[in-house]
Amino acid sequence: MGKLTIERIGGLAGFGLPGSKLQSRGEQEISALSAADRASVEALFRNPVRSQESAQARDAFRYRITRVKNGQEQTVEVPESAVPPALRACITDKLL
Questions:
Q1: pTM (2 d.p.)
Q2: In whole angstroms, what separates CA 57 from the centre of its chain?
């Protein structure tokens, strides 16, 4: 089924943004997700939450989720509230 790459960006410390010394990333096998979480992820790619919603929350985290489907890389960026807990749980922080 493939793998998702998840990046947490933004927040007060500016995780993952240019010049940041902090990186928050994780990977998750799609097949390891529950059916409900797989459906949630699919919905994010079909109809991503608009960045206006995430821009309204100052210093809020956003998540960049990337997958390969039909040989093409697809990426969406969504607010933290839209991300299934199983994806948030796979993130680890790394000091660069």
A1: 0.84
A2: 17
**pLDDT tens, residue order, the chain (96 aa):** 799 999 998 877 666 677 777 889 999 999 999 999 999 999 999 987 765 454 556 678 899 999 999 899 999 999 998 999 999 999 998 888
Say how far apart CA 95 and CA 41 lie, in whole Å: 28
Residue with tokens 């699919």: 42
Radius of gyration of the CA atoms of the chain, in A: 13
Work out the number of other CB atoms within 10 angstroms of the CB of residue 57. Answer: 13
Tokens of 8: 């947490």
Cβ contacts of 15 within 8 Å, gap of 6 or more: 8, 9, 22, 23, 24, 61, 93
How many other CB atoms are there within 10 angstroms of residue 26's CB atom? Answer: 17
